[in-house]
Each structure stands twice: as C-alpha cells, then as structure tokens.
Amino acid sequence: MNGNPLLEIEDLFTVYNTEIGVVKAINGISLQLREGMTLGLVGETGAGKTTTALSIMRLLPEKTGKVIKGAIKFEGKNLLDLDEFEMEKIRGKEISMIFQDPLSSLNPIMTVADQIEEVLMIHQSDKKKKSYNFLQNSQLFLRSNTKIERKTDEILELVGISSDRKREFPHQFSGGMKQRVSIAMALICNPKLIIADEPTTALDVTIQAQVIEIMEKLKQQLNTAMILITHDLGIVASICDEIAIMYAGEIIEFGTVEDIFDRNKKHHPYTQGLFDSIPRLDDDKPRLKPIRGLMPDPTDLPASCKFHPRCDFCMDICTKQNPLPLKEQMHMIRCHLYSGSKEL
Amino acid sequence: MSKKLYDGLESKEINRIKKKSQVQFVLSHLFKNRLAVAGILFLSIMIISSIAIGFLVDYKVIVKHDLRNKLLGVSARYWFGTDGFGRNLFYRIIYGARISLMIGFVSVAGSTVLGGTIGSIAGYYGGKLDIIIMRFIDIQMAIPSTLFAICIVSVLGTGITNLLLAIMIADIPQFALIFRSSVMSVKNSEFVEAARSNGCSTYRIIFRHILPNCMGPIIVQATLNLGGVILTAASLSFIGLGVMPPTPEWGVILTEGQEYMRDFPTLVIFPGLAIMLTVLACNFIGDGLRDALDPKLK
Amino acid sequence: MYKYILKRLLLMIPVLIGISFVIFLIMSFMPGNPARLLLGEKATPAAVEKLTEELGLNDPFFFRYYSYMKNVLQGNFGISYRTGMPVIYEIRARFPTTLKLAFFSIIIAIIVGIPIGILSAVKQYSFIDTLSTVLSMGFISVPPFWLGLLLIILFSLKLGWVPSYGSDSLKHFILPALTSSACSFATLLRMTRSTILEVIRQDYIKTAYAKGASKPRVIFIHTLRNALIPLITVIGINFGNMLGGSIITESVFGMSGLGNLLVLSIRSKDVPSVMASTLLLATLFGIVNLIVDLAYAFIDPRIKFHYR
Amino acid sequence: MNMRRFVFAVCLMLFLFSTAFSLQSVYATAKDNTLIIAHYGDTPNFDTHNNINDNGMRINTILYDPLVRMDNETYEIYPCIAESWSVSEDGTEYLFKIKKGVKFSDGTEMKLSDVVFSMQRGMESPKAVPSFARVIKAEGIGDDTLKLTLDGPYPEFLFALALPTAGIVSEKAVKDKGEDFSMDPVTTGPYMLVDWRIGERVLFKANPNYHMGEAPIKNVEYRVITDPNAAVISLEAGDIDAYVGVPPSSFKRINKSPTLELHTGLSFGFTFIQLNMARSPFDNPLVRQAIAHAIDKEEILYGIFEGDGEIVDTFALPTYLGFTDEVEKYPFDLEKSQQLIEEANLSEKTEISILLYTAKMSKLSQVLQDSLADIGIDVKINQVERSAFNDAKQRGDFDIICDGNTFTAPTVDESIYTVVRTGEYFNDNGYSNPDVDQWLDEARVTVNDNDRAELYKKVLVQLSKDLPMIPITWNKANIATNKNLLGVTANPWSFYNVYDFYWQE
Description:
The structure holds four protein chains of four kinds.
Chain A: E1 5-17, E2 22-34, E3 38-43, H1 49-57, E4 65-74, E5 77-78, H2 84-90, E6 95-98, H3 102-105, H4 112-128, H5 139-142, H6 146-158, H7 175-187, E7 193-197, H8 205-222, E8 225-230, H9 233-239, E9 242-247, E10 250-256, H10 257-261, H11 269-276, E11 325-328, E12 331-334
Parallel strand pairs in A: 3-8, 3-9, 6-7, 7-8
Antiparallel strand pairs in A: 1-2, 1-4, 4-5, 9-10, 10-12, 11-12
Chain B: H1 2-6, H2 11-32, H3 34-56, H4 59-63, H5 89-125, H6 127-142, H7 145-156, H8 160-187, H9 190-197, H10 202-213, H11 215-238, H12 250-258, H13 266-293
Chain D: H1 2-22, E1 34-39, H2 54-63, E2 68-70, E3 77-79, E4 82-87, E5 93-98, H3 112-124, H4 129-132, E6 135-141, E7 145-150, H5 157-161, H6 171-177, E8 191-197, E9 201-206, E10 219-224, H7 228-237, E11 242-244, H8 251-256, E12 260-275, H9 285-293, H10 297-304, E13 310-311, H11 334-344, E14 352-356, H12 359-374, E15 379-383, H13 386-395, E16 400-404, H14 412-420, H15 434-445, H16 449-466, E17 469-482, E18 485-486, E19 502-503
Parallel strand pairs in D: 1-10, 1-11, 14-15, 14-16
Antiparallel strand pairs in D: 2-3, 4-5, 5-7, 6-7, 8-9, 9-10, 11-17, 12-16, 12-17, 13-17, 18-19
C-alpha cells in the first residue's frame, strides 16, 4: 500500500437528460485511487466508464450531463464544489486525459507543437494572473518562449517523436504517432493523475503495444497515477494495479489484478462472462462463451440487480433487490450469489 | 428472419408498409417542431382563405377602381384600407396569395422536374455527358439568378406565365446539382448494384431505386426554394418586370403602394408582411422537414 | 500556388465565354431596334436604317457574336445603345458603388452574424438562441426591397437620420448596406451556429477543455478557427449573391451602381452595357470564389497540399 | 505559424476592402450659393448635336446657346446668338444677323464660321433631327449673316432652332478634340462644365465671358434622382433646390410646404388613346365612338392624374392657331356607349390588349380596362419596355395604345401631322383620310395665318369624327423649387435656362 489516496469517488450518480428520457449513466459508484497506482476501468460499451472519466474531469456535456449526487475528492478537495475557473487550473495540470480516437482528438489546424505548448502556456500564466483574458496567452504573444519550447522538445523525444516534426500538422502523422502526441500533451505538466479513455482502441494491434509500452514507461518515470479505461483485459493485466469492473453504471466487482485474474477466486457472473468471452490458450473449452443478451436500456434500468436479465444464475431475489457490496480486503463483489456468506 | 416476417406479403405491400412507416416517422417529427407546425398552419390558412375569397368576392371587385374611396384608412369595411385606386387592400392581399403561391408551387415543381431530369442524367451516366451538363450549369450559376430571370422576362415579356417560366429556368441548376450529387452517392451503393445484377432496366433503377432514396434533400430544397421563388417573383414584379397591374400580385401591390408610402405606409407594410410571413412559413416547414428527415443535422 | 491561381483564372475563361454567349443570345431575342434607341424616336427611318447597317445589326447572329467577342478581346466593349458613349465609361463610374455596397454589407453581415451565431451556439436552446433563430429566419424571409422601404420610412422619413437616396457619401450607404446584408447576415448567423455546434462536438474540443483551456479560449482559438472554413464558403457565396442582389437594392435606393445600370440597360435593350456588366459581375464572382478557395488554404493546413 | 498565416489572410482581406473604398474618394460639394437641380436621369454626353436624351437636353440648355430662345410663358422667340432675323416671302429662307463679340468658354472669339459650322454639323447628325430635319443648306453671308435654306415653308422653324439640339460649338475645339469634345465641350452658353460623376451629378460654373453678362447664380449642380418620390423628400429636406417633373401625388405636399414652390404650365404634349384601325373591331367607327364615350376624363384627371393636366376634346389648345370648339365631343356616357356597341354588333369576341410602357399610362389603362369591362369589352393590359413598345407600335402590332407625346412648337401641325398623315412615320394605326392629308399638306405651304387656321379647323373636326385617336388630357410641365429661387417659370419642354434664375437677397 504505497501512498495516500489521491482520488476518492464517493457514491457518484450521473445522469444525462436527453430527449428520450433520463439516462442513468452512473448509479452510485465509489472508488479510491492512491498516488502512483494504476486503476483499470473495465466494462462493455455503455457501462459508464467514459462518463466516470468525464465526471471526474467535469467535462460532461453541458446541457445534458449532470452529476446529481456524490463527491469526487482529489487530494481531499471535492472537485464538484470547485468553480469553473479553479477547475480549469486542475485540468491538464493536475489531472489530464487521453482520448480514445487520436485521429479526431487533435485540432487539425494547429501544429503539434502549438497544441502541446498550449497546455504549458495555459498553466504557466495561471500563477501570474487570475484574469480571464484568453488572448493574452494565445500563441501570438508567447511565441518565443524558449523554456516552453525546450520542454516541448523534451516531452516529444520522450514519447518517441523527433522534435524536427513538431511544426507539422496532425494530418501528417500516423495514428500511433498522433496518440503519442496526445500522451505528450497529457504528460507535459507532470499531472498527478492521467485518465486514459481507451487509448489504444482505435489503433492497430502492433501500434497498441508500442503505445502501451510508452505509457507504462512514462508512468514509471513520472510516478503518475492513472485510470485506464478499456475493455481489453489483456492490457489491464499488463499494466494495472487494481481493476474495477463496471456494468450499467455500477461497479460490480473491484480488486487487485491478482484478485480479478485469479480464476479460483469468486467472481461476479458478469466478470466470469467477460473472461469466458476471451479466447484462452490454456483452456481446452472448444468454444467461446459469449454473454447472452444486451445491456439494459439506460433510461429504464431495473431497480434490482442490473445484470439479472442476462445472468445464468439468476435467482428470485435478483429480480427484486439490488445486491449490496461484499468485501474481502480489496476485493469487492456486488451479487446475490454470495450474499448468503458474510465474506467472500 | 425478415423473410419469415414478410412471408406471404406481396412485395408491393412491403413497400407500402415501409413507405408508410417512413412517412409517419417524418411527420411525427415534423409535428413536434413548433415552428414547422406554425408554418403549416399559416400556409394552410393562406391557401384556404385565398381559395375562399374567390367564392366570396367577385374578382371584378378586387381589380375594379373606385376612385371616390381611394386611400382610405383601416376600417370595418376595408380591413387594411384602400389603395390608390380605391380597391380593398385586404381582398387584394388575400387574393394575391393565390398568385404568389401558384407561381411558387408551379415553378418549384417545374424546376424540380427539369433540374431533376438533367441532374439525374448527369449523375447516373457520368462521363462526358456529365462534364458537358456541368459546364452549362457552371455557366448559369455564374450569372446571378435575379439577373437571369430579368433577362428572360424581358425577352418573353411580362405576365404571370412568363414570370413563372423565367424563375423556373433560373432555378434549374440548383436542383440539377442536388439531384446529381444525390444520384451519384446512391448510384454506387450496394442495393443499386444488387438491382442491377438482378437485371433491372436503367429506367427502373433510376425511378424505383435511386430517386426514392434521394428524396429527402430534394424535398427539403424544394420547400426552402418555395419561399425563395415567392420572393423572387415579388421582387421582379416590384421592379416592373413581373406580373402586371391590376393583377393583385404582392409585388405589384407593393409597387403601387410605394408611391403613397410617405403618407400611407400601410399600403407598403401589409403586402410586405404577407410576403414575409408566407416565405417565413415555407422556411419553417423546410427547416422542420430537414430536421425530421435527417435528425442528426439538428 | 501561383500555378494553381493561374489555372483557376484560365478555367474561368470558358465559363465567361459561355455566359457571354448565353446573354448575347437572350438579348438578341429581345424586341426593339438598337439603332432607333440610339437615334431617338424622332429620327428619320433612313437614318435608322443607315445606323442599323453600320452597327452590323443586320448580320447573322453568329457573326455578330463573333465580332462582338473580337472587340471585347481587344478591350473594346462597344458603344452603349442607350447613351451613345463607350460602355466602359459608365461601368467604370458605377462599379465602385456596387463593390462598396457589397463590401459594406458583407462586413455588416460578418460583424453582426458571426458573433450572434457564436453566442447562439454557445448558449444553445437558451432564450437568446431561440430569439436569434427566429430573427434570422425572419431576415431570410423578408423581401429585400420591402425591408429597404421600411428602413426608408422609419429612418429617413420619420426620423430623418439618414438620406434615403443616392450614393455620394458614406451616409448614403447605411440603409442599402443594412438592407442587402439582412439576408446574408441571417444565413451567416445560422451557418455559424450550426458549424460551431458541429465543431464543439468534435473530440479535439474535449481535448482542449481537458488541457484546462477556458471556455472563451476554446471557443475563439479552437472552435472558431475550425468553423471558419465552412463559414468562408458561405461568405463567398453571399458576396456573390449580393452582387446579384444589388439589382434590387440599388433600384430601391436609387444608387448609381452596376445593378441599376443592368436594369436600365436590359430595359432599353442596351446589349453592350448588359454584356459588359454581366461579364464584369461574373468575373468578380469567379475571383471571389478563387479568394475563398485560397482563404481555405490559409486556414486549413490540410487543404494546402492539393495546390502543390 | 498558422496563426501568422491567418493574420496574413485577414490583412489581405482588409487590403481588398480598403482598395474598394479608395477607388473613389468621396468629395463634398460647396453648398453655398450652389443651385442644385435634380432630374430623373443622367446625360450620356455633353454634345449638343449628338444628344436627344431628356436630361442631356436639359443640361445642354445651359451649356450651349442656340441662335434664339423661347419664352417659357408667352412662347415668344427672343434673340440669343442671333440678334435679329428675317424670313423670305415663301417661308423657306431665313437670314440671321449674328451677334458680335461673343466669346467661347475657352476665351476665344466666336466667328460667323463657327456658327455656320455648327449648323452644318447639326444637319449631318442624325440626333440633331429635331432642329435640322428641314434644313438643306447653311451658309454665311458677309461677316455677320447666316442664311439657312429649308426644303419648304416651316412656320415652326424658330422653335426648332431654340431647342438645345441646335447649340453653337467652337469649330476649332471640335476639330482639335475629336471624340473628346462630347466630354469637354467648348461653348458660348451661360455655364461651363466643371465635373461629371456619371450617374450621379454634373457640376457647372458660370461662364465669366458670357455675352449677356455673367449669370447671377455662380455654381450649379445637376443631380440625378431617379425616384421622383425620393426627390420630393430631398426637396423638403433642403438637400436640393429644384426638381423637374414632380409626381402629381406630391403636389399637395409641396403646396403645403412653407419652403417650396410649385411652378406648372401647359406643355407641348397630350395624353391620348390610339386605336388600331387596321384591326377588328376598331375598324368599325361605332366601336371607336363607343370607347370614346366610355372614357371618364374627369375621373382620370382628378382620380389618378391628381389634377395634373387639362381635359381636352381635340388635339390643340385654344391658344393654338386653328383651334376650334366645333369638334365632335364624346361625353362620358356608358349607356350610350353600350348602345353603340350593340349597334356595332360585334360578332366574335376577340382578345384585345392595351399596349403601354409608363407607370402613368398603366394607371390610365387600368381605369380604361374597368370602363371597357362595363360595356362588355374585356381587355388585357400589356405593359412592356419602351423599346419593345416602339417596336410593336411600328409594326402595327397592337389594339389600343395609351401614350403621351411631346412636340416642339405650339401648332396643330406639330401636334398631329406625323401621327395622322397617311404614310408618315408615326402613323402606325392604319388611319388614312385623303381629305385630312390634303388639308394638312396644304396648311404647310400656306403662309397666310387665316387660311391655315381654316384648314386646321377642318382637320380637327374631321379627326373628331374619324377618331383614330382619342385625346384625354393636355399635359403639364412642372418644376418644384425652393421659394428663395426666383425667376422660375415652367417651361413647356422642361428645358430650363438657369440663367434666368436668381436667389432672393
């Protein structure tokens, strides 16, 4: 157990108010992340992983997305209580984020260097001024800041991009390179926490490995905590310390890598299903076993266990009552299967 | 699965069901749009009242001068007052809706059909034919359409029919372009390939497969153009190159009123309002249709 | 890049030739004898016949077109049938008015349309947004000549703030510029709103927020510049429309511009004037389109590559 | 980097904007003592012999001096460049004594040769027809006499010479300047050209060498205001001092205004309806009479012309030589009209249309259309452009024409000869009456006024019976001015000699 808690999420509820109805994206999740640790957030599309990330960053779509309950404490401060101006100082500097699709997450009409330097410039001027003057820190006026340029070159070298190319535009880079730029952008201010939202999904498998490697390396070097959102269990296994498995806006299982990947331990049926749907060489089962059915409609979630319509072990109680979390040290499961026993 | 569902149904029947549901979908979206509903309501009122006035009031009353009663203000008998000839402005404006809307509908329909034919041919056959047609369209697009319409009217002479023709011709390229790009985008899609491999004739492919699939943008464009055409018609009449007095066309009423504008501004304000509200209604409907047909654009 | 500009300019030539042909053809169907127009109604038939022969009006159509184009290529746009003076005199005098009017209008449209569009996009679904949507729809639907008349009634007749007529001082341009900017302001507003909404949804805007950029910074540095690309097209198209729309605006406000000249010339079958002003407008239109395309290259680095 | 490019793009655009504005600098006019007269259009050039544009002729009136000028109210011809004149017995030879010591605007002396040259130049120019149509020879006699020979007697000749198409030019300047002369003329007129902004304004200053003394108003600006309603607004606002041809709908407003004055007078022209006698049903005199009875001239004059004009029953005013009140009159009487139509027994219903080109005639035709509908004739209104109108008229391709005319001199010959004489150029409606032809021709060669008057009377009476055209109103000319501008009277041609104007002290 190294370090103090960096990020604590307590009983978070997030909803989207859409035309179709109220989408309950996150339904009471609690998490803890300590300094330097890596948390893997695993789940299907629509499980609320990205919403969790956006809730932390407070970047939920302005009109629709809303945190209705709970707290997100970063270094003891509740992020939800901060005003927009204070939040801006945290974004990019204390907490930064890497997005899923490097093709679209870089501004097509700014050079790579401009985009990386922008982070530095925004946060450099933070200290000096409180004013909202946005033009003051645009590139026009801070062009020849050698310190910033040096730092940019450094970070680009670090992610493996030659600094000669920094005046090029995103469309001149390949997908993997772009993701490296995103990583550089996320890391340039030495943030305490990085949220990586499926950073490798859009990339080729070979490139994926490279990117993961770089992230791993940098994390070690900079001792940054990270939340890695993915549905790729392989990646989780290789770099995460702890894993949270999400389903329909709830964390249904949490534990260290060892807890989750130990097939002999008890698992939530959904986790079980996830593992069963990955091909394994050491298994002699002839076929994959997919989880049947689809995610429930997020506007109309069952009040009881969200997974019960798809669960092979569904019992009477599952249709009536939402299970409470059961804990064994770090390992946590929410399932009626195990609710008979006090412990796992 | 779908085969099972539709088993026993004629293919026509299937089409009907599919079409109906699509139309229903679009309509239900359209009716949710308050502005579009307002537009539809206004336009319906205009159409109904302009038809009704033909039965209630003799056309002669609408165009006949009554110089003793000229330039009267708003009263119970003359809701909008009378014009420089002593004619009832309210009747004229309501009757004017007939002419403006008629010009609008007919000329939009005409340019849709003509532009559609040209554009579909260009888009479907491609190659040299396409290049030649496109050059012609380029040329016409480079001439401001008002100017083009003015030229045509001055050759053909004034009058409703000629005005209508002029506007129709000037609008053809727009529709040709839309049809062309729609046809080109649909032409290479898989279901057309499939139809072709099933041995459908070109005619059948264009009319049964391609055109129904690019109707959306065309309907939207046509509705939006309806407003534009009404505006152009009024503009041309306003500068004396369109419908001729005493026909109660809105642009004509405006020009006639312009002379008295200083002392009797209502003679200018009312016909202008009629034009604006009608065009606005068309634009609201067009916008609503666009949103309904393509919700992601919203 | 210069090569590209040259290529585009060369491509304009066939279009211009096509336009000249179409207009010449249409004008040749117009009733009326130019020689009689030139000489006036009291002229003797013999004099009219003589001039008709001199002007080559009895020649076959293609021959007339050929000789007209030959003269144009030598820089000779002919003698106006209406005034009896070289066409170029009048065009030279009138062109700046039209150009000024178009520039003023587009500037007004940009200054008013884009900021309101941004505001309306940023505050989507707010009261301001609804108001500006309805207003812009209204401005698109308003007949320009009517708007002009209303402005005259209000600002010149009732309030007496600005002159209603003429084109000699900047003051005279206020109402016409407002009138002809109404439609383009509205389209620009709507376009700004929708492109900004489109751009705001892009991932790189989320990235920018994640970097800690403030909202104004995100809007002005990241969103606006990306949204500018489609907006420039709209501005270009509107500029072209304004040149065409000047026909109406100028006749409402009695400005001595090209539009007014065109109406006058068409009405008096003044073929050389109509031809020259149409060609000028079309050329200008082409150049504006070229400038729009070049402006793309300045703003969007992705496009520049095609020029090389 | 790309920001710099963006800035560059913005600069480029700003540059383009600025060039657009610098193309033409806005210049201010000296308002003090400058008389600003507005007209509905611009002049094409400043060449007296090559300009028959209304507005051009208005300008050439003050730029050039003709041999003689005409008084606005009495129509009396008074001397200008010609001090005195005499006419030969047969009326074909005119001798003019040319004034001495007249100077051109460039300071050079005017010689007899310049006058002779001007006459010859006018004779050659197809556009100077209104003045020189009948002149066959111009020569100088001695050192101060000009002799003009005509192709026949022409009592209205002095009026023709008073038109601005017969100005005196400097021979040397015409020969030196060539085509540029029409832009930069050298003249003897009371004013000199200073500046011209095409389509907007022309500036003049008084000619200091003017032979009748320098004009009291030193600076004059002719401004173009195409919309007469806008012109009235400018008048009221004091932006302009005078406007020629105010629309009748503004008469009330101007008469009420404490600062403005309206001057009106009868012009040389009338409004009429012409029926195409070559076509059915107008070949039937009963139908023509029926139509004449269906026209309510009073309603037209007061209802739509706002009282601008005078109702007439024939083609002459009482002051004209040969005027008679014994013409056939057709009072407004729909019953009579209907009766005549029934009598005419129209077999088939033909499509009848009214051809016209001006807004004024459009109003007239709408009233006419309603009246004809009352007697059972449905007509269509066909408003076209002027060139198309002339074209159709010449080809005889019309049923009814609503039009107005203008002529040079106050005589019956001027008002109708070219319109009703068989074979004449403006006789487009197929009217032909050998008697009328004979009387008209005879009148032309008759020098004795009484005999001429008798002939004209016969013509007018016959025309009122034949009804090839129906006179409606006699037109009026008007000019609205600032009350401080004195010396203004309405000119029947609407050509104003600003030399007569002066400011109230």
